[in-house]
Amino acid sequence: MQDDGLRVPVTPAPPVVEQAAAPQPPAQAQQATPQPAAPSSGPAIIKVNPEPDLPSSGVVIIRDPSSLARNPRTAHLPDKDLLEQTEAGPLPVRAADGRRPFDVYSMPWSGSRGAKVAIVIGGLGLSQTGTQAAIKALPAEVTLGFASAGNSLSRWMQAGRQAGHEIVLQVPMEPFDYPRVDPGRNTLTVDASAADNLQNLYWALGRMTNYVGVMNYMGGRFVTDQQAMTPLMAELGKRGLMYLDDGSTARSLAPEMSLANSVPLAVGDGVIDGERERGAILKKLDELEATARARGSAIGTGSAFDETVDAVRSWVAEAKKRGIEIVPVSALANDPERGR
Does a structural domain hold residue 320? Predict the structure, then answer.
């Protein structure tokens, strides 16, 4: 199995091999029956399906970690083991067994080593009609970004997850020229205390569930200030969330701080709809493809404008024919806990 071929990071228990015991009565021996192996001229893998409480029987059990991914039909349902009930709402946390929201809510992909492109379309939840149209039109491989200030987020999250999308939550952060340029309600700012910023973060995190991580909404000034970023990244690491930097600020401290706090990190390579014109958006998408072919992968971000959604929908269909795999953004995250 390839290192990057497993969509959901899982640390399986090491196989236990015991010395052969004395023959057991037939009733016990039938509890774990290997499937008969076909004649072979080489090594073979024996698949075993033991009962959950079956004691070790000297058989090495081989499991596919990707089989632990959640069923797409129930992907809209939050895992109760990953929730902390608070006054701000249900907040994501690591489960007692170590599973992270990043692990459980990420969507699968092929694991191939070919050129990969992740596209994140944000701003969902701000316009009800626009959100509905985007979820309906965008291919399932496209990651959806929900604005924490949006409306009916739980409803739209469920619709997006049932349609097969991975989800990130957009958190408003202080841009340059704030407050003249205002990201909106409960913005994390440089001059606020760590406690105040964490309260605003909790408010955002409690707005919905089932997301793999957070993404900066604006934040040009905030992401360059170490004192402001330190409590944010520490909290994300504690809760098992990814941080997606949209790549708009070259001096962002996210790369070094994510590593120090065990936060999975993805960094965007460019905004695809700086110009809201179909031809310009398609050109940006083609540039992402070129980057992916040269480097192996690329991440593009955009907003749920009609022009953007239409261009992405048609481009994805054509890119697949050219051998480009469209993957959820978590597939391209650098995860310190997995060493890549």
Answer: yes
Q: 173: Cβ–Cβ under 8 A, 6 or more apart, which residues? A: 183, 187, 188, 189, 216, 217, 218, 219, 222, 223
Report the CATH number at residue 236.
3.20.20.370
Q: Which domain holds residue 278?
A: 78-332
Residue 40 belongs to some domain of the structure: no
CB 329 within 8 A of CB 244: yes
| pTM to 2 decimal places | 0.79
Reported confidence tier of residue 8, pLDDT bands at 50, 70, 90:
very low
User: Given this model, what pLDDT does residue 258 score?
Assistant: 97
Tokens of 254: 């996210």
Residue 30 buriedness (CB in 10 A; 0-12 / 13-18 / 19+): exposed
Alpha helices in the chain (DSSP H): 26-29, 101-104, 128-137, 153-162, 194-205, 226-239, 254-260, 278-295, 306-321
Neighbouring C-alpha atoms within 13 Å toward the C-beta of 286: 6
Q: For tokens 């409690």, name the residue.
A: 206
The most distant pair of C-alpha atoms in the chain lies apart, rounded to whole Å, by: 79
Does residue 147 lie within any of the structural domains? yes
Pairing of strands 270-271, 213-218: unpaired
* Number of domains making up the chain: 1
